[in-house]
Amino acid sequence: MEERKRTEVELAQKRNDKNVQELIMKLEETMKERQRMDEELKREMETQDLENRKATEELQRAHERVVAMHEQEKARLREELERERNKPRFSLPPIQCPLM
């Protein structure tokens, strides 16, 4: 009887040890999968950051081009205005009415 109980306890302990080992293996697999997913997420975030930086730089360059074109147009209009102001003006002589 005593031997039977000891055998049952040993078998239960072995089953328990096996279950613990299986749980440890599942946990290790889960941790590896999580690490893989974290690395993938990190790569995706780095890619998005790079794309965002490129888009921001492109927008800045486009803005600079628009500002430069605006400044050129303002300068051209100023020059045109100055030329118009400096053109000689002709005026008609005053009308003389004969005295009656």
UniProtKB/TrEMBL annotation:
Residues 34-53, 79-100 are annotated as: Disordered. It comes from the Eukaryota. This is Uncharacterized protein.
